[in-house]
Amino acid sequence: MSFKKKYIKLNDDNLELETFSLPTDTNLDNQNDLESNGIPSNKQFHESFSNYFQPYTKMNSETDKINQEEEDEDQIEGAAINTTTDDSRKYNTYWKCNSRINYPSSSNNACGLNLEKCTPFETSKAMTVRCPALCDQGGLVYAPIAVGDKRIRYESYVIGEDYYRADSFVCAAAYKQPIDKESSNEGVKLKKDSSQKGGLSYRKRLISRIFGGCVQIKHVGAQLDFPTTENIQFDSFYPSSYVLEEAPFSAACIDPRFYVLAINLVFFGIIFYFFESKISFWWLMIQCFFFQSLVMDPAITIDPRDITTFAELVSLTVQKLLPLCFILHVLYSTTIERTFNDDYVSSIWKMGWLATFWLGLLNNITFDRLPVDRLTISDLKEQSGGIAATGFIFTIIITSAFVQGYSVWKAGLFRQHFKLYITMIISLISLSLLPGFGLRIHHYILGMLLLPGCGTRGKSAYILQGVLVGLILNGIGRWDFASIIETQRALLRGSAGDLSKPPVFIHNSTMKNIVSWSSPTNDLSYIDSDLTGFSFLLNDMEVYVGTNTTITIPALMKENKLVDDLISGALMYEKDVKLYLRIAMCNVLDSSNRGDYTNAAILYYPSGNWTDPLPGVS
Fold first, then answer.
1. Mean pLDDT on 151-173
2. CB-based contact 467:362 (threshold 8 Å)
3. Same domain for 222 and 81?
4. Dihedral-angle region of residue 78 (phi above 0 means left; psi in -120 to 50 means alpha; beta otherwise)
5. Do 613 and 149 touch, CB atoms closer than 8 A?
6. What's the superkingdom here (predicted)?
7. 77-81, 96-100, 491-495 — most confident range
8. What is the Cα–Cα distance from 507 to 616, expressed in whole angstroms?
9. 166: helix, strand or coil
10. At which of 435, 462, 490 does a domain end?
11. pLDDT of residue 190
């Protein structure tokens, strides 16, 4: 790995960002090795210091070296890369929009001490991968993730710009990166658009939102910081990063789901228009369920070269089909059949039902685009526009309820529907009061609850029924029969707040660069558990596991070569290095068995300036 530092030159033609490696000795103090402007030669840096930083692993035997070689093979979260042939079809591996290279989906200390479980791929090789469509939305994180002293949620997890921190979502970064960047090993050039004053205009991105695409990934080592204007900024060092480049080919890179969607819209429209209601309904339900589950929004990622992954997806889809058919049969017999009576329904309103059905079925590209995750005050406040979008949704629901309620009253069904919905409301309230659980009304459950009230022959029934049936198929196809009550831990979705409380940092302003903390002895879960040690994070990587309650930065650098390399290297460019520090209780023998971390305290080394962490856990 090699540190990078950006120097900016401007001329009339372009803005050039030149990237230089970090020297490890003082030989470059000689003026012969400096350019006329005093900046070390880019070529000289790359020739002399390209291997300065390497992943820190202590290998005591030949067995360790063999294991290290095996770990260096290209890997990704949830799939495997086969690089044994040069055929472009080998890249037909779907990465998820939130896949990371060699990084687990969780955060904090999941990579182990010194990121030993998250070693980068081979530096000298570029790895080409295929990304799916819809990565503009697919890279969002819904459970809070700590990046330095920031809490990232409802954003694409992309740290940096031009070069990205190694734990960034690759495909989400590819969608955000413009294609008209000329990158090379010598630096990155951004084309300047003369039509816009003082800005850069980008016409195309590395991958398409609609069709996905292929990108090349190159590992470029440690970085001093990760500046950006659009993504997540991290203003300190990190030992691993990558750059993205346009793939040298485009064959076998297109995600075909929208082509299949266009064919289905025409084909199912013809069948739904000409066939009688019962036949067309069941044909539509079965075919669209498989389309949704296998093509449009599959529950698992498929590797086209591995037939077992496709077989697993088919098995999962068929597993859900029988109970879904039972639900649809009950709903059709009690509600939908009355609306779809061929003696009353017109073909035009059937097509209206079909149009709104597609609106609900394609929830991942329609309603999911609204800034509403869950209907809780805390979630809505964190999403930009969440409260306004929720108000709009409730306005639509209340208006529809009044319109459809009037239709139910005219049909003479108001009394029985009133009893039904009073029973539903009482049941939901009872479920919400169960201790240790939270009520979670998934959108397939919402469709099942509201559909009985749409069992009339009015025009509003066609519009509302279509949306609700589409939501039922989408929810079950993508998320299975998720429970209406969930534990508090499940509702946290892997975020902090359910584990043992963290220690408390203690800062003494008279003792610089000494980090101390106290154990949370008032936490009963700590007293009764085997969390007898501490896990110490520096810049979001675990660098110490032990029983000490005090650490000095110089001593840590002496004991940990990776930390020493990183801080010493950063000090060659900066007088004060910004360090983000977090601490948690853990099992000394297995630090993955841990409690919650503190929020990040900030220490400037070597000046010793200290900022206490914000309240809360991460």
1. 93
2. no
3. yes
4. left
5. yes
6. Eukaryota
7. 96-100
8. 18
9. coil
10. 490
11. 33
**d(Cα 451, Cα 425) in Å, to the nearest integer?**
15
Q: Is the pTM of this model over 0.85?
A: no
Token output for 411: 């049909």
- Does 39 have pLDDT greater than 90? no
Beta bridge pairs of residue 546 = 534
Question: Using alpha carbons only, how large is the chain's radius of gyration in Å?
Answer: 28
C-beta of residue 289 within 8 angstroms of C-beta of residue 473: yes
Cβ of 178: how many Cβ atoms within 10 Å? 14
Q: Which two tokens stand for residue 81?
A: 């890369």
- The answer to whether residues 330 and 431 belong to one domain is yes
Q: Side-chain half-sphere of 177: how many Cα atoms within 13 Å? A: 32
Q: Are residues 520 and 486 in the same domain?
A: no
Alpha-helical regions (H) of 275-306 = 277-291
Q: For residue 90, what are its two tokens?
A: 């080998």
Q: Are 202 and 238 within one domain? A: yes
Q: Looking at the structure, do residues 463 and 540 belong to the same domain, yes or no?
A: no
Instruction: Give residue 412's region: left, alpha or beta (phi > 0; psi -120 to 50).
Output: left
Alpha helical stretches, state H, 346-413: 347-361, 377-382, 386-410
Q: How many domains does the chain have?
A: 3
In a domain, 26, yes or no: yes
Domain CATH for 117: 2.170.130.20
Print the domain residue range for 445.
326-490
540: left (phi over 0), alpha (psi -120 to 50) or beta: left
* Residue 305 CA to its chain's centroid (Å): 25
Looking at the fold, whether 463 and 514 belong to one and the same domain comes out as no
Nearest to 463 by CA among 347, 355, 378: 355
d(CA 507, CA 235): 23
46 lies in the same domain as 92? yes
pLDDT in tens, 304-355: 777 888 899 999 999 999 999 999 999 999 999 888 876 666 778 888 899 9
Which of 468, 490, 512 is the C-terminal boundary of a domain? 490
User: Do 441 and 564 belong to one domain?
Assistant: no
Quote the tokens at residue 522. Answer: 């008032």
Q: Please identify which residue in the block is written with the tokens 């992954």.
A: 309
